[in-house]
């Protein structure tokens, strides 16, 4: 299952051992397929089902979107083994891929990059 990670423009409330690294900066350091951790945050004033997403380095990159947090927090509370990996950085945040059966998540195939238009040619580089 692919999940959206949101709240990436907010500062981290609880600095980790590495200090207060901005979430977008940490997302830029993440690579597809690297493990991420999910932690419940029951004291979150906005959502008691909030789930923090932590990079492999233990730095918060955001939250699981509220629409999925209730389902995923229920899995975690009932002891279902959730494994998660970073999938991709997005303009609005990031995506992660999870499994609920203890297996390693498999990333979906990357989208093919668009070919340039057939009549388009880049300009030669001009010396300054």
UniProtKB/TrEMBL annotation:
Annotated segments matching region Disordered: 1-20, 107-128
GO molecular function: hydrolase activity, acting on acid anhydrides, in phosphorus-containing anhydrides; nucleic acid binding; zinc ion binding
Gene3D superfamilies in the record: 3.30.70.2330
InterPro entries assigned to the protein according to its UniProt record, in alphabetical order: HIRAN
Keywords: Hydrolase, Metal-binding
Ranges of compositional bias, category Acidic residues: 116-128
Cited Pfam families: HIRAN
Ranges for domain HIRAN: 30-90
Protein name: HIRAN domain-containing protein
Species: Sphingomonas montanisoli
Lineage of the species this protein comes from: Bacteria, Pseudomonadati, Pseudomonadota, Alphaproteobacteria, Sphingomonadales
């Amino acid at each position: 299952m692919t999940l959206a990670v949101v709240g990436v423009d907010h500062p981290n409330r609880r600095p980790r051992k590495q200090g207060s690294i901005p979430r977008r900066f940490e997302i830029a350091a993440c690579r597809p397929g690297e493990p991420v951790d999910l932690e419940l945050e029951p004291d979150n004033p906005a959502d008691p089902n909030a789930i923090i997403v932590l990079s492999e380095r233990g730095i918060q990159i955001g939250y699981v979107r509220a629409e999925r947090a209730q389902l995923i927090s229920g899995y975690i509370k009932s002891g279902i083994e959730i494994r998660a990996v970073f999938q991709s950085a997005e303009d609005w945040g990031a995506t992660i891929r999870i499994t609920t059966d203890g297996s390693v998540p498999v990333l979906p195939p990357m989208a093919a990059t668009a070919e340039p238009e057939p009549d388009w040619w880049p300009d030669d580089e001009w010396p300054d």
